[in-house]
TrEMBL record:
Gene3D superfamilies assigned to the protein according to its UniProt record, in alphabetical order: 3.30.420.40
TM region positions: none
One cellular component term from this protein's GO annotations in UniProt: cytosol
Name of the protein in its database record: tRNA threonylcarbamoyladenosine biosynthesis protein TsaB
CDD domains assigned: ASKHA_NBD_TsaB
Gene Ontology biological process terms from the UniProt entry: tRNA threonylcarbamoyladenosine modification
Classification via NCBIfam families: T6A_YeaZ
Length: 227
């Protein structure tokens, strides 16, 4: 089964393709300018070319559904729906935080905690078992302070993601490690996607919405004060 994967929830615009569980190609770039609107379809074309298959051969689309950048998530969801409508294929959606922990499982960490930078001292985060990847606490928007995660002070914990930089500055956890260079990536959607397809856990394409976690806060324009 040939699957197209899209992950646009962060600064990493990421596309991957697999065939029967084997990763064929990844095309991605981390940019501070959030280039998803410019790059996503180009990356999809590159990934298809690199995998040596045509778009008509794709049998399902998997999307990193968030949490993360509101605009990035909307772009990813719109593209995923477009592919699914056009090709008449199913849509699978995976929590983007789960793609961040995949490379670090079974590496002697008690817990792996992904952190996506939100605003100020806030992060999107969840706690996962470091061995199995099982979710131990639900995804939440969490405001960090000196007492955050203190229940893990005697555990070996790895914090990953661009929100880990904030955490490292204030958390009082002597055994913790921090890796701020990790972003959600389409290449780590494969395992969870195959599980969902096996269980026929597909999204309703017409009504699917990304996992925003919080309401969008736009910048209000000041009213003119013409006298």
């Amino acid at each position: 089964m040939k699957i197209l994967y899209l992950e646009t929830s962060s600064k990493n615009c990421s596309v991957a393709i697999s065939d029967n569980g084997k990763l064929l190609c990844v095309s991605e770039e981390v940019s501070d300018n959030y280039k998803q609107s410019e790059s996503l379809h180009t990356f999809a074309e590159w990934a298809l070319e690199g995998a040596g298959i045509s778009i008509k051969e794709i049998q399902a689309v998997s999307l990193g559904k968030g949490p993360g950048s509101y605009t990035g998530l909307r772009i990813g969801a719109s593209s995923a729906k477009g592919f699914c409508y056009g090709l008449k294929i199913p849509l699978v959606a995976i929590n983007s935080l789960e793609t961040m922990i995949e490379p670090f499982l079974a590496q002697n960490y008690d817990y792996v905690i992904p952190m996506v930078d939100a605003r100020r001292m806030e992060v999107y985060t969840a706690v996962y078992d470091g061995e199995t990847g099982k979710e131990l606490s639900q995804t939440e928007a969490k405001i960090l302070d000196e007492t955050s995660f203190e229940e893990f002070k005697d555990k070996k914990v790895l914090f990953v993601g661009d929100g880990a930089k904030k955490a490292q500055e204030i958390l009082q956890l002597p055994n913790a490690e921090f890796n701020e260079s990790i972003y959600p990536s389409a290449q780590y959607l494969v395992k969870k996607t195959l599980e969902k397809i096996e269980n026929k856990e597909f999204e309703d394409i017409a009504y699917f919405e990304p996992f925003y976690l919080k309401d969008f806060h736009g910048v209000k324009k000041k009213k003119s004060t013409d006298s």
